[in-house]
Request: fold
Amino acid sequence: MDIHGTTILAVRGPEGTAMAGDGQVTLGQSVAMKHTAKKVRTIYKGRVMVGFAGATADAFTLFERFEKKLESHSGNLTRAAVELAKDWRTDKYLRRLEAMILAADAETILLITGTGDVIEPDDAVAAIGSGGSYALAAARALKRHTQMDAKDIAMAAMRIAAELCVFTNDNITLETREREVAK
Reply:
């Protein structure tokens, strides 16, 4: 049976970036096994947020590899993501991993896949997982038509996704990184 880690959303605004993930883990198509999973974490000295959708053990393997890439590239998020995607695509062991990652800091949001993709969204909103399209649509609408900050958009969009997607719940973990203000 498939175990799913489901909905992750990242939103960047003028104040910084917020990343939210729901707490549901589903076994197969019908059993919610866990309601309080934490699928959003911080790595690399608390500067980078990562969230996953897919196989949990695979995601943790990727988180560890990604943090090593961040360390070897002095925290350069984009460079580390490209290097991880290259390894993920070419390494026989990593190629079998079934997960997707959203990674973000205060300035950048990146979607990283096992097919070698590193995508920075044009509109500073990205989502992954089975409820990702619901969260993405809600976040884009809120970002375009309200004055809400990134944190509030992420929370509201995740709640909307939880209302629509049976694989997403409203037990939300939220992390934020604020932009540094020039002095």
User: Anything to note?
Assistant: Residues 56-72 form the longest helix (17 residues). The longest strand covers residues 48-54.
